[in-house]
Known about the structure:
This protein has one domain (6-90). The protein has a two-stranded antiparallel ribbon with strand order 1-2. It has a two-stranded antiparallel sheet with strand order 3-4. Helix 1 (6-18) runs antiparallel to helix 3 (54-68). It is globular, with a radius of gyration of 13 Å. Helices cover 33% and strands 25% of the residues. The chain is an alpha+beta fold.
Amino acid sequence: MHSFTRSGLVATLHRALAQGDAVDAAWEGGSAAFASDDELSDVDAVAVVADDAVAATFARVEAALDRLSPVTLRHDVAGTIGFAQKFYRCATPASSW
């Protein structure tokens, strides 16, 4: 089974978010933002996106993730106001970060 690295995942997300002009800013949050990430850390990607492009941006991110490793779980966080949030799990386990 093909695995991927943390840097490969971040690069994949960067390329997906850099397409088009709807994303005003993007960064990695969570433990990586505080230089405390380790082999158990997830990747917290944050993007500021034009309101009318949120769905298309999520679709682009999901397509990029599927090309890296099929998404087996997607959780849409309901009830948020002013932002949208999703969590993903890929089929292929990540290699050692």
